[in-house]
Amino acid sequence: MKPNLSRRFLAYLLIAAIGVFPGCTSRRINQNPQTGRFDVSQGGYNVFSPEQEVQIGKQAAQEAMQQLPVLPENSPITDYVQQLGQRLASVSPGPDYPYQFHVVNQKEINAFALPGGPIFVNLGTIQSADDEGELAGVMAHEIAHIVLRHATSNISKQQAAQVPLAILGGLLGQGTGAQLARLGISLGANSIFLKYSRDAEREADLLGAQIMYDAGFNPYSMVEFFDELEQQGGPGGPQFLSDHPNPGNRERDVAEAVAKFPKKNFGRKDSPQFERIKQLAAKMKPLTAEQVAQRQREQQARMARAAQEQIQPSGQFQPLNHNAFAIAYPSNWQVFGDANSTVTIAPPAGVSQSAIAYGVVISGFRPQPGRDSLEIATQDLATTIARANPGMSVQGAQRTTVSGLPAMSVVMTGPSPLTAGGQTVAERDTLVTVQRQDGSVLFLIFIAPEPDMDVLSQTYSAMLRSFQIK
Ligand SMILES: [Zn+2]
């Protein structure tokens, strides 16, 4: 079980990222035929800068900490895993990511890495590792995914390639890193980060083997563990193998690579510390994936109840003066963002978990040349948003005016991040676009779960009436 990510949020994140760092790349590895060492080089498409990646990972880790039963920092098991992790991270190639290591009190054998540094290891992995080398192998493999930027490269490939818009971050100002962090209030982690291609798996195996070797471990311990997992089989096999599938010849590829490393004693396989920690772990009763999911559902239900009480907009409005626009908003709602960034205006409870369930997002972009009429640019934007939010569909567009300028209004419907009585609540969003003199387009997305439409529609209308372009 992994924390949930709001797809919608991811779309905004992409929109924010794309215009700003169009030229960032992922990383590749090459084995130097002379030295046998793997060099990490630039290669592959990635819309995120390494700095953005760290921000995204930090926010996602915070959400993961809220949603998963993570052992406390002062647990001896966490302490040990952190030491082991730091030892591996200290010899990992590439930039110095702020690695952090956490243990999830969950039974299934698994581990996952978030972009830019955070790594989560399930207690079940420690319980089932035969020696320190096997646990180190899983962690070295995860570190390699981070070094090679596989998670954000995944998102870039799956989604950004389809995004038809060249979004101009410059329109709404600089400082995207900080902006992402602020937006990131609603960021979580999702399988889109965590399902890797066979190529990515192969690279993580090979680089992981080198990290093991450099940290003084027997690099074969890693494949030994993966091998044991495969033999355990069972329906679906351990979760780890479905997230990190065998690229084909895991064992042979690693053996071939390791054979080319400079000769040295293959080193450490176990330690007394590991044995002590394993004994501690053996006495614990971690939660099952089903129990973790139940916890998440209860959390969501709590959020829904809290939100219900808090969304009610006050009749009082107050002004927001952004560099690109001005708008009035309910005084008991909150602005996330600043005068230069994309902003979300929402009741605090509406964005406190892994998604924006209520509120207004205001941002802007520059349409692609040739697709820069307001009608087509709006269509492109609506398609992008719908594509990034499974189940969302575009209901129809109409012309209107905003702030005295020609504008478009598009109704979109789909599933809300909220549930009621175990059922997903329907959501109705209105996308409003308005073109500025310079051709760029400002857009507002008014988000409302169906049951709250009546409460919110008057407020949203008043907000739109107050909207002024600068
Ligand atoms: Zn992997």
What would you say this structure looks like, in words?
This protein has 2 domains: 7-287, no CATH class; 310-469, Mog1/PsbP, alpha/beta/alpha sandwich (Protein Transport Mog1p, Chain A), CATH 3.40.1000. The relative contact order is 0.13. The longest helix is centred in the middle third of the chain and has 23 residues, at 289-311. The chain has 470 residues and is α+β, with helices and mostly antiparallel strands. 41% of the residues lie in helices and 22% in strands. The protein has helices spanning 7-18, 50-67, 76-89, 123-128, 132-147, 150-158, 176-183, 191-194, 198-214, 220-232, 239-243, 250-259, 272-282, 289-311, 374-388, 453-466; strands at residues 25-31, 38-45, 100-104, 111-113, 118-122, 317-321, 325-330, 334-336, 343-346, 359-365, 393-402, 405-420, 423-435, 441-449, 468-469. The strands form 4 sheets. The protein has a 7-stranded antiparallel beta sheet with strand order 8-9-10-14-13-12-11, with helices on both faces. Strands 3-5-4 form a 3-stranded mixed beta sheet, sandwiched between helices. A 3-stranded antiparallel beta sheet has the order 6-7-15. Bound molecules: zinc ion. Zinc ion is lined by residues 141, 145, 196, 201, 204, 244.
